[in-house]
Each structure stands twice: as structure tokens, then as C-alpha cells.
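re the bet — no i am not wrong, look at it urself. input seq straight from the record:
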Amino acid sequence: MIVSVLLSIAAASAAAAGAYVTNRLSRTRGGGRTVVLVAPGLEESFKTGAALVVGAPVLATHVAFGWLEALYDLFAGRRSGSGAGPGRRAAAGLCSLVGHALFGAVTCAVHAATGYWPAGVAAAYLLHMGWNALVMGRVGARS
């Protein structure tokens, strides 16, 4: 049990580092559209791929990634001077945690139905892309 948790944390940390770097690079080159179109594919591939490479449970890795992103949401906005208050950052963090847990559950459910991890990643990507489009639309409308 402890080994699975540690492997999930290691896989999630590697996935988060990869996602952070590639998301920043793609956003500087492609703008806000990459948050909707590119970032979800990278994140879903990194999370599931890292879990499979190290032998960690895929769902637990997605949840651990959600925790890491939630922590980022809580603390990065404060440092960046984005103007988002603590309540908004906490809500963003909660959405990150729940969202990535859901994306992991979809990945695992589709894998269980098809026996094919790429099908699970593709389904999670589509859901993640739709979520980001919804959120970015709402954020864009307020800005």
C-alpha cells in the first residue's frame, strides 16, 4: 500500500513537472487556446504514462496530480499578483483536485471497458478539453 502511494506521488510529480514546462512553452507560443486544446492532452498523457512507466496505480496518480495542481492554484496566484482572492484560489484548487480525479476515473473506466490505455487517455482528454473550454469561457467573460 505504501509503495503504491509513493509510486503514485513520484509519477504525479514527474507528470506535473512535465506538464508545467510544456504548458508554459505551448502557452507562450500558442496563447490561451493551448489551455483548451494542448494542455489537456499533455496532462492526460503525462499522468497515465508516468503511472504506467513506474507501475503506480493510474487513478491514484491522477488524484495526486490533482493535489499538486490544487496546491499550485492556491499559492501561485498569490505570488503572481493576479488579483484572485483566497476564496477564488481555493475554489480553483478544489476544482483541480476533483477534476483530475474524475479524469483519472474516466481513464480507468475506458481502459477497463476496452483494455486499451490510449482509449482511456483519449476519453479523459476530450472531457478535460471540454472542462477547460467551459472554464476559460467563464474566466474570459469576467475579464
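see?? DSSP finds six helices and no strands in the chain. told u. also Residues 2-142 form one domain. so pay up
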